Amino acid sequence: MKRNLFDISAQIFIPFFTIAGYLAISFKLPQWGLILNLAAQPFWIYSTWKAYKNAGQIGILINTVILTMIIAFGVVNYWFMGKV
Fold first, then answer.
1. What pTM, to 2 d.p., does this model score?
2. Can you give the pLDDT at residue 9?
3. CA 8 → CA 11, 45, 50, distances in Å?
4. Spatial CB neighbours of 37, under 8 Å, sequence gap ≥ 6
């Protein structure tokens, strides 16, 4: 199977940004944890879209899209709403 650069990047950035985000949250820096987790979401969405197209796994795609919206709300809440 031939992989493109984005496939390879996703395999690197999904664990990097996700783990870094959870570490930031565990070190009591939730605002940075949300940013790092949000950075991972395009790669998660791409990977779950491929899983849906290749294996019909719609549940993980739905979960990822909803989680992305929740994380985006958290970013808005921490970075923009708290400063008003």
1. 0.85
2. 87
3. 5, 14, 13
4. 17, 18, 21, 22, 71
